Amino acid sequence: MKALVYGGPGQRSWSDAPDPRIVDPTDAIIRVDTVTICGTDLHILGGDVPAVQPGRILGHEAVGTVEAVGAAVSTVGPGDRVLASCISACGRCRYCREGSYGQCLGGGGWILGHLVDGVQAEYARVPFADLSTYRLPATVTDEAAVLLADILPTSYEVGVLNGRVRPGDTVVVVGAGPIGLAAILTARLYSPARVIAVDKAVSRLEAAKRIGADITITPDDDPVGVVNEVTDGLGADVVMEAVGTPGTFELCATLVRRGGHLANIGVHGKPATLHLEDLWIRNVTITTGLVDTHSTPTLLRMLGAGQFDLTPLVTHRFPLAEMERAYEVFADPARTGALKVVLSRS
Predict the structure, then answer these.
(1) How confident is the model at residue 129 (pLDDT cuts 50, 70, 90)?
(2) How many CB atoms lie under 10 A from the CB of residue 148?
(3) DSSP 8-state symbol, 18
(4) Which residues lie below 8 Å from residue 281, measured CB to CB, with a gap of 6+?
């Protein structure tokens, strides 16, 4: 089969790879029908995730058709159309029993495209299939469903829920890429008074406006001044970091009010300064997190009921064989205007 193979920092190729096979009785093999590229894949290529070894097939977001299952799999079978979650869960360890699947100690967590081969391929092995795949209703398209593999639950759980967004809040999202846009979309479920998006790219700020941001600004527009103006000088109730750079994290810390919440969503590859000399006295809560995907069934029901319009998040579409081209487009959003790129089996 063909797959996107990581060759080390800065190196990738759409090349031949061995077909996946059942390794454990809890495995499923899927034919990948729709797949997307994540900002985390770019972090891997940038050398920010050293646990990913050369030769690894990347990717952790896919919709596919089950081809085969191991003897212990009971909830899906050949022919089923499924969402393959970015998080795998053994279902037995302490963390899985608490719903913290991202911290699974039994061989799960974020492993696809990280510690085991991923889904940017023609076929893929999905470990712990009973807990790591979701059968899809006919009302949900592949293109919409693939966004529930990672960015929707990540933004919702690590951003909105960790940030404790409440009705009437002022919410600031720093970074209006796919994760930031999904954070804006899901924050709206809690009726904030206003949502402010901060990003360098005008095209992404325009997308943020379409998805539900009330105010859009660039880092050069004095974000602190704008936030203070609309909050009577208090600062934002919730600030979400959705980029993953030291500068954006430090900006977030200047925007949050006393007693507010700073929810870090971004993947960081370099140290960021934590100004505890300023923050300790302000009762600021800072959260970090890897998505657990415990919200995926809820989000899937909402998607099936038409409560989300995810169409604006997808800007580019490619056949699976054009994976290299899709990476080039996704990695250069300033030139291409890319948000999410979706690849489908032709």
Answers:
(1) very high
(2) 29
(3) P
(4) none
Residue recorded with tokens 């990717």:
59
161-180 per-position pLDDT tens digit:
999 999 999 999 999 999 99
Cα angle 337-189-204, degrees, rounded to a multiple of 5: 10
pLDDT tens string 306-339? 998 899 999 999 999 999 999 999 999 989 999 9
- The whole-angstrom separation of Cα 261 and Cα 259 is 7
| Nearest C-alpha neighbor of 162 from the set 303, 339, 294, 343 | 294
Joined together, the tokens standing for residue 323 give: 């994976």
Q: What is the pTM of this model?
A: 0.95
Strand partners, 29: 68, 125
H/E segment holding residue 250? helix 246-255
How far CA 59 is from CA of 62, 76, 125, 145, in Å, comes to 8, 22, 12, 15
Q: Rounded distance, CA 337 to CA 191, Å?
A: 29
CA geometry: angle at 210 spanning 209 and 212, to 5°? 65
- When pLDDT is cut at 50, 70 and 90, the band that residue 72 belongs to is very high
Q: Is 17 within 8 Å of 328 (Cβ atoms)?
A: no
User: Among all chains, which residue has been given the structure tokens 């009973």?
Assistant: 130
Length of the chain as a residue count: 346
How do strand 133-135 and strand 2-8 relate by DSSP bridges? Answer: unpaired
| Separation of alpha carbons 103 and 96, rounded Å | 8
C-beta separation of 168 from 191 below 8 A: yes
Tokens read off for 186: 């899901």
Alpha-carbon distance values, 246 to 214, 227, 261, 269 (Å) = 26, 20, 18, 9
Q: Count of CB atoms within 10 A of residue 50's CB?
A: 9
- Tell me the CA distances in angstroms from 22 to 1, 63, 80, 124, one per residue in order: 16, 18, 17, 10
